Amino acid sequence: MALQINGERLWASLMEMAKIGGTDKGGCNRQALTDKDKAGRELFISWCKDIGCTLRVDQMGNLFLRKAGTNNALPPVITGSHLDTQPTGGKFDGVYGVLAGLEVLRTLHENAVETLHPLEVVVWTNEEGARFSPAMIGSGVWCGEFSLDYGLSRTDKAGISIGDELARHGYLGDAPCAPFQIKAAIELHIEQGPILEAVEKPIGVVKGVQGMRWYDLVLTGQPVHAGPTPMDQRQDPMKAVSQIISALFALADDTGPLARATFGDINASPGSRNTVPETVTLTVDLRHPDQHTLDDMDAEFRRIASTISRACGVEHTIVDEWNSPAVAFDEHCINAVRASAQQAELDYEEMFSGAGHDSVYVSKVAPTSMIFIPCEKGISHNEAENATPEDITSGCQVLLGTMVKLANA
Ligand SMILES: [Zn+2]
What pLDDT digit, counting tens, does each position of 1-27 carry? Predict the structure, then answer.
């Protein structure tokens, strides 16, 4: 019989970790590098040391807990996520990926199973970005996206830096915060969206992360009186923006079910009910998991804005606010997750992540993929965040199968 993880032990560990920073509403407030985060880290490290793991701490306070393989010259298979939470966070976001990694190591340890490659569970520092901005700074510095000085000098609202807090807690490690050779990296996480619950499948085989583009569209016309001015003699930015929004909704529909177009904020100036506005500013958020398709959507947006603005006699400017390219995960890692779900006889959905994760940065330097499980009503970053013990167990079983497969290949 294949190795089985212990779902009750994993659930008990999640509930014990959730007491550290536990809130009245059943959530968790364990923000990055607070005393509570330190307590959570220490509990996790003690559990790992109980089964003979060794600890390495890097210069950003990222923790690597290692279970030796039969050939320790080989690069490790790593898993993990984050232990920090939002101020009104839940019990599962991030924590599940870390403690499921521990459960995989516990299962191998108690069955005296050794893998060819060593295994590591990683805890990335300040994933949430709630206390220190930007989010995912630990994995971001590690992969080379940000410099170490930049990472250590980020401050919270009180002016306390990440470097100060790492020093105070004894987590200013001496391992270089830089990529090392990795066989494969697998992150297990709650979905934080409604798809798996809707299709009633316990496992998401995550093939990549949506690309995202944020813009401000500024349309400038001529402010005139709402009464005397005939419709055909206006340069009305509101007319243009209404047509642009319709055209972009149609573009998203035509592009297919994976495309997203969102207009979350709109502002008319001077903002008087009986004056045609002089300017209208619209936020535009376009997303797609395929970078080529997202590039096409970007080009089409620019063409639509230009054509409609000209037809309406208004000026337009597009300000690029943010550009996060789509991530395609590693085919070999995705295949290993899929095969492991099949082996465990668990139904799965192939999908893309709509949220950012440490794996976005890890995937820049190592073969990476992710596993999702459903969370209740798709709710996350909320004290009501919930997942069933059955799904928690299933996801961890798939993680075990995936890691063992990759670490013995
Ligand atoms: Zn997370």
Answer: 689 999 999 999 999 999 999 999 999
Distance 5 CA to ligand 1 centre (A): 22
Ordered by start, the domain boundaries in the chain are 7-209+326-408, 211-324
Distance 353 CA to ligand 1 centre (A): 11
Distance (angstroms) between ligand 1 centre and the Cα of 242 equals: 36
402, 371 Cβ separation under 8 angstroms: yes
CATH 3.40.630.10 fits domain 7-209+326-408: yes
Q: Helices marked H in 171-233 — which ranges?
A: 195-199
Q: Is 336 helix (H, G, I), strand (E, B) or coil?
A: helix
**How many other CB atoms sit within 10 Å of the CB of residue 4?**
13
Interval between CA 404 and ligand 1 midpoint (Å): 24
From ligand 1's centre to the CA of 160, what distance in Å? 23
Give the β-pairing of 184-190 and 119-123: unpaired
pLDDT tens digits, one per residue of 144-200: 999 999 999 999 999 999 999 999 999 999 999 999 999 999 999 999 999 999 999
Mean per-residue pLDDT for 46-59?
A: 98
Expressed in angstroms and rounded, the spacing between residue 373 Cα and the centre of ligand 1 is 13
Residue at token pair 């709650």 = 190
Domain 211-324 sits in CATH 3.30.70.360: yes
The three-class DSSP label of residue 370 is strand
